[in-house]
Write a sequence for this structure.
């Protein structure tokens, strides 16, 4: 068991240093590596396989709703970026600029896309002519670049992978529906597939996407009580359409501007999975995106040839049933293997030893709660789906409990301060008047920023937690990643 | 039929102007669009759907052979690019340089990856320690940038999409096997899935990839007799391993350098599909990658409600059987629809009219030869697979016939000249002494360059077609895209 111990010992405990625990998992579970490209990460096979599963599940949902994938250039000429005033103000300070092509300086510098609204708008101006061309429901999977000063794997890196949906609609109503529909797709994906409970809401005006009329987000609570913005959806009105002169002939033969949305989810979700579900033994993966859903570990293979035979049989049955399953019949000790697959967050481990074979049983170990149950060998393939669903639902409940136990309703700034002094990070619910000055003051005095105005409002009093003037809405406040 | 005529007339005939015909198809079949980003293309939904099908088919083959996907940063610091001398010489003149991050100049400029050998090598140096870590079989799907002066959609653009495999092996033999194995995967994919016959061979030394010991390629003949390099696979020896100090402890406990390969295929394949199979009515797509494999067109729907009923029934049957099928019950005329789906290269069109319904029949129109057959309505779903396989095999045969009819064996430079004067572009087979000077002279005098030294050699005489000295091998010569 020496190896096993060594491996587990290498991880900092999450209670000792959550940030270090996070980085340890990223490295030891072989999700990422660093390179000489500062602020960027290498996504290793195990990390990338999680991303591929995420892509597949989200892409299927997008396509079922009629969205089509496209690919836009990765460069944006400076003059194109400059077309929408708010947008360029938001992004220009954090883009990477290409100024040389081969050995020659470019006549106009190009930024590496930080997001692609401008490119989509230029294209839409070309291809949208009539109401018959609407809606346009496009999406792209690509990498984008934002020149961040402080970076952390998955959470904030200079380059990251994402999808960006960009849609155009004939009416404001339809565009607004799309904005919320896609936020709900993200929420549903997080809750059902990633087992991460999320709060849906609108960003306050100061926190909107550059150029958007409204920005919606889903906010998840990490194990340490901090918030992670896990997906955003924006309603643009016809602002970009006017800036890019996108017009179409409506049914009544008048010329009109279409209404626009965009929405995006990124590799940051992998950071969310780690910090929502992980523990001191390593990663804990939701079954829907786990590269290996079930690992079969034969025990004491040398004692009886039946062990490997049975293990192989179970492996083949599970594979045939469509699960992502691995048989580890390597020379490593069972202890090493247990630690390894715990570190990698494999949801179910099936152990088969000589005595199990005689008794017609196998041991199923659950990663999420480290418990074990005994299951008849001939029932395991049929029961695997149910077991994985149990894992998912218990992971979700555990995450929800964590959130509920760290969510506090506060009516005064002093209450926020004392909650934070006593409990540390968590979600604060408190009323707000709608003024940016109050947002700033809450942040300055208590450390928590406004995360969103939840769709599910509660009435926690009639006055703003900060200025005491009439409150407009309940805001979710937290320290965020 | 006015619309139909108009649409078809908009395409230049391939015999009038092949280059214009090509560009017309790219635009009219809605594969691409241009933007203000010079030399880059927008891949539109129909074009991108072809790419997604290509990705899926190739990725499945890669994974079956044990390859894993990863994601490397899109930037390469100049010092890293400079580590392997031949490599940087080949690529530095054609890369895009990022020199500013936000508003600050970078201390070291970064190139946007033109290919990722250097990044993979840096990572491999980190993670390869022991013979147990070998082989490493990594692949990545991404976009790359090469600052080309003259660009054409799919064939040559400043940014393109591709996959790049990068593998490391304990022995030269194993690495050499991998190099050829992956070339064969490309060849098999082209012949079976894209219905494009290819010639496998080695590049001559002057035409090798920058830094490679050997480069292999598959060469396809386009309809106009020109060659298209459709995929390459490189054997690197341990050159990069030495430059990047990648070492591992071998079984005998000595320190050793691993042997390396890389191999890539790009969106250029879509250009190959267009120029191999297309005709004056537009695109002709191989069933394996066609976004729509079968389109069902109800005729004279207004005459009998049974028409749409039957068409829907057939559509549902085909969909349930797993085909990518579309039912077009829009208001457009049948003539417009026929022209539209011919332009888009849909392999099979099923027409169902009132009289067909009465007779229990439908008409199946083949895109590749524009022929039609009558098929019983209740047999069509069961027969579709066979029909699509017929399409594939006839497309392949037609392409092979084109290649064979335009391939010429030549024994003297004069023969090459007269073949070219008489027949125009095609493949020339001729013997070669192995000297670069002769390659250059053949090119200068006849216009054809060496494409590859085919694996399947023929003996066309004992002397070099150019200098008359003893010949080493038969070379395939052609004008290339």
């Amino acid at each position: 068991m020496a190896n096993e111990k060594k491996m587990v010992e290498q991880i900092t405990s999450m209670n000792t240093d959550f940030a270090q625990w996070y980085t340890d998992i990223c490295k030891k579970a072989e999700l990422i590596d660093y390179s000489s490209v500062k602020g960027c990460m290498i996504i290793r096979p195990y990390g990338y396989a999680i991303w591929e599963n995420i892509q597949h599940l989200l892409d299927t949902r997008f396509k079922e709703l009629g969205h089509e994938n496209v690919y836009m250039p990765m460069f944006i000429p400076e003059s194109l970026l400059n077309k929408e005033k708010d947008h360029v103000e938001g992004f220009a300070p954090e883009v990477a600029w290409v100024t040389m092509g081969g050995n020659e300086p470019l006549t106009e510098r190009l930024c590496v896309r930080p997001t692609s609204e401008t490119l989509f708008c230029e294209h839409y101006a070309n291809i949208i002519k009539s109401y018959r061309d609407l809606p346009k429901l496009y999406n792209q999977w690509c990498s984008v670049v934002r020149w961040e000063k402080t970076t952390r794997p998955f959470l904030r890196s200079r380059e990251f992978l994402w999808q960006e949906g960009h849609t155009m609609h004939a009416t404001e109503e339809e565009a607004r529906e799309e904005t919320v529909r896609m936020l709900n797709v993200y929420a549903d994906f997080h809750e059902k597939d990633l087992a991460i409970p999320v709060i849906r809401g609108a960003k306050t005006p100061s926190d909107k996407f550059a150029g958007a009329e409204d920005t919606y987000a889903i906010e998840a609570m990490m194990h340490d009580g901090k918030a992670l913005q896990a997906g955003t959806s924006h309603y643009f009105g016809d602002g970009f359409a006017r800036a890019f002169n996108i017009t179409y002939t409506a049914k009544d033969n008048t010329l009109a501007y279409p209404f626009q949305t965009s929405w995006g989810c990124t590799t940051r979700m992998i950071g969310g999975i780690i910090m929502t579900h992980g523990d001191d033994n390593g990663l804990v993966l939701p079954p829907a995106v786990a590269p290996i859903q079930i690992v079969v570990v034969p025990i004491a293979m040398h004692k009886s040839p039946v062990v490997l035979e049975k293990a192989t049989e179970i492996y083949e049955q599970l594979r045939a049933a469509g699960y992502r399953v691995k048989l580890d019949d390597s020379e490593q000790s069972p202890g090493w293997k247990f630690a390894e697959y715990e570190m990698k967050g494999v949801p179910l481990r099936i152990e088969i030893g000589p005595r199990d074979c005689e008794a017609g049983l196998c041991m199923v170990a659950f990663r999420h709660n480290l418990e074990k149950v005994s299951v008849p060998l001939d029932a395991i393939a049929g029961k695997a789906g149910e077991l994985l669903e149990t894992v998912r639902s218990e992971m979700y409940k555990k995450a929800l409990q964590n959130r509920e136990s760290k969510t506090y309703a506060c009516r005064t700034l002093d209450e926020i301060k004392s909650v934070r002094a006593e409990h540390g990070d968590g979600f604060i619910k408190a009323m707000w008047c709608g003024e940016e000055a109050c947002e700033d003051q809450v942040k300055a005095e208590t450390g928590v920023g406004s995360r969103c105005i939840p769709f599910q409002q509660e009435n926690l009093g009639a006055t703003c937690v900060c200025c005491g003037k009439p409150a407009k809405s309940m805001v979710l406040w937290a320290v965020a990643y």
